[in-house]
Amino acid sequence: MNSSIKKFIEQHIERIIKEFDFENQKKNKPDKCICYSKGKCHKIESLNCFLCYCPEYENSDESGGCRIKSLKGKWIFNEKLSSGKIWDCSDCDYPHKRELVEKHLKKVFNIN
């Protein structure tokens, strides 16, 4: 890994997390996501959009799934889908908590 990137992340982790706060994104980048004009995609108080797509979403299968077996997810069944179903995690708050974003950044960039 590039040490200058790691150093930047380490020095600015709080700023990065704050930048991706839902309310901040909605105010400063309203055209970046449809949810910024329609409302939150997850009904949690402190929604963080840094991990818009959950790092635990199982995308090796077209049906999707959850690697951590979250009880907040569910299967949506539809005969138009080739597999007949797809994993829906819109009720899950796991990837959108500030604490997880910080943990994920520290893990990916090997920051203590």
Describe the structure.
This protein is mainly alpha-helical and 112 residues long. It folds into two domains: 1-53 and 94-112, no CATH class; 55-91, no CATH class. 35% of the residues lie in helices and 7% in strands. The protein has helices at residues 3-19, 22-28, 35-38, 98-108, and strands at residues 74-77, 85-88. Strands 1-2 form a two-stranded antiparallel ribbon. A hairpin with a 7-residue loop joins β1 and β2. α1 (3-19) packs antiparallel against α4 (98-108). The radius of gyration is 16 Å and the shape is globular. The two termini are 15 Å apart.
Strand-residue fraction? 5-15%
| Helix count, DSSP H or I runs of 4 or more residues | 4
What is the total tally of β strands? 2
Share of helical residues: 25-40%
What ranges have pLDDT less than 50 throughout 5 or more consecutive residues? Answer: none
Shape: globular
Question: How far apart lie the N and C ends?
Answer: 15 Å
The averaged pLDDT comes out at: 87
